[in-house]
Structures are given as C-alpha cells and as structure tokens.
Amino acid sequence: MDDERTDVDVDETDLALLRRVERDDDVNLTELAAELDLSKSAVHYRLNKLKDAGVITAVSADVDPLALGLTTLVITEVSVVHESGYADEIGTELTEIDGTVQVYYTMGDVDFVVLSRVQNREQLNALIDEIVSIDGVNETSSTFVMKELKTGGETVAAMSDEMIANLIEE
Amino acid sequence: MDDERTDVDVDETDLALLRRVERDDDVNLTELAAELDLSKSAVHYRLNKLKDAGVITAVSADVDPLALGLTTLVITEVSVVHESGYADEIGTELTEIDGTVQVYYTMGDVDFVVLSRVQNREQLNALIDEIVSIDGVNETSSTFVMKELKTGGETVAAMSDEMIANLIEE
DNA sequence: AATGAAATCGACCAGCA
DNA sequence: TGCTGGTCGATTTCATT
C-alpha cells in the first residue's frame, strides 16, 4: 500500500478501451463499439472523457524508423562533472541534439541515459561528438541495440493485474 | 556515404505530413490540408501511400503513464551467463514480464536493457525478482529515472537535416 | 448512457498535369 | 505518378430523454 492518490478514476471498460486504442486507433466508432460491446455513444463519451482527463494525451501516427533508414539504435550513458549544477541545462541540450529520441535524467553514477537513432556509423560518431562537447559532460558509454524486442508503444497492455487492481479500487 | 538502399521514397511533403501526424493525428483532412497547403485529396492520397508503404505502422492513442499511477520508470541492465545460447528465449521472457515497456538486446557486456513502469517500490522489487529468476540471467543493475526529458514519441522530428537529405536524394 | 437527427467527414472516382 | 474537385455514403456530434 503505497501510492494511493490517483488523479483520475477509470474502470475496467475504460482500460479495455485504452488497451484497444493505444494499439490501434485507426478505427471508427462502430467497430470500437462492436468490439467492446458498447454503444457508439458510450464509446464516444468515454473517449472524450479520457482525453479531457489527460489519460489519452494524443492520438498520433507511429512512424517506422527503419522505413526512413534509421537502422541504428544506440543507448548512451552520460555522466556529468558532479560539481556543476548545470544538469538541467545539459539535459535540455541532449534533447536538442539531432538523432536523440529518448532522454532520461537518472539517479546514480550515470546522470543521463540517451537513446538515439541514426542512419550510419558516421552519424553516430557525429552524435557522440556532440554529446561529449556539451559543457559539463564528463564521460559517455554507448551500446548498440541489436534487436528491439519491445518498443514501449503500449502502456496499459504492460500493466499487471495488481496495477490494474490498484487503479480500480480507489 | 553508407546506407544507400532505402525501401521507400518520401519527399519533403511526406516528411512534413509525417511530422504533423506523428505529433497529433487527431485532426480531420480539412485541417491537415490547410496546414500543409494541399488539397484534402492529396493529403488522403499521401497518407494512404505512407500506410501502404509501412512508413506509418499504426495510428495509436498515447496513454499517460502517470495518469494510471505508473509514477516510477526504471532502467535495468541485464547480463546473462554467456555460455547459454538462450538469449532469444530470455529476451522473450523479459518482454512478457508485467511492467516492462521496452526491451532491447544489446552488444557488449550488458546483454539486455529493460525499461519498466511500476506504481510503487514493492512492484519494482517484484519486477526485479522476476527478472533475476529467469533461467540464464546472471546479473542486473537498475537505475531510477528522475525525469523524462524526451520520450521518443516522434521519429521524424528527431532527424537531422543530413538524415533528411539522405532520404530525399535517392 | 442511449436515441435519433443534423452536420460533417472521409472515401472514391473520372479526368488532368 | 501525383493531384483536382466534386459527389455520396458513412460518420461524428449533440441535444434530449
């Protein structure tokens, strides 16, 4: 029993709807209604509610990086000189480097984890050069991704029964 | 000059369209057409083309993890005993653990990088226990994410001019 | 949360550059 | 090959219960 305060309240139907549209929202209300055993109006009502509540933050097209030649995904750990209080600024600069797709500020001896997509090794070298040239960056360590086994597109689908239960009973 | 063979050919207009819909596809054709200075038919035509070509793999709703109480994001490095050729199987098992949202198979001394979302520390402990109990897993190292600075939703927007140029000139 | 009607939209086509 | 413009059926939307 830890985190009790949840901003929004969703029920099992909402979660089923979310699971469906986070996978594929390129459907009309009639189809959604049939799949979820709801009326079209009910689906419409719930989708609006979920968007208003901020549970659904956007409806977006998923672009295949490979189709654009972005065949290389790299994970880079970035450490900064720990005297500098410029972590915020460094983080912002990391997000602005072309090719970076995910940037996380982390606890521990590594300060940032950066995921980047590039088309070839030259672009990778250029990208890492850009990172190390940021003022305050101390050390970097990069690893190639050989296979993307799960890509993070689906949030609700990744939740356990316990996580679901914590949401429902509130 | 490295990777020359790209499966699909897209032009600047396609990329502008992709940039728009990967950010927000919750708009009608009329609005898209106005923003891109195209006719509705042209937008319709290009969107279909991009979906057929596999550049757009899906249109999906983005769910805010925080709205569902998933306040904790953790990055875990997983090493396997290197005698075992069960890397594929271990990878699959990692993707199936509740809470894991991204799983990458990597080169180097770390074999997998796993990103997980949980609601509290107990769930995190349970998750890590599940990982280490996988047959063949040797060692894990986890790091809390304190701030998500860039979350990887947009692929085209992250591309440099050079990457774009490599795509256009083919 | 359901109904039904009005407004709007997306799909499609024949023709064109 | 990519686009235009217009039509029609389908869809979203909304007031009402």
TrEMBL record, chains A, B:
Boundaries of every HTH asnC-type domain copy: 10-71
Pfam families attached to this UniProt entry: AsnC_trans_reg, HTH_24
Assigned GO CC terms: cytosol
GO biological process: response to amino acid
Keyword Transcription: yes
Lineage: Archaea, Methanobacteriati, Methanobacteriota, Stenosarchaea group, Halobacteria
This protein's name: DNA-binding transcriptional regulator, Lrp family
Keywords, ordered alphabetically: DNA-binding, Transcription, Transcription regulation
UniProt GO MF annotations: sequence-specific DNA binding
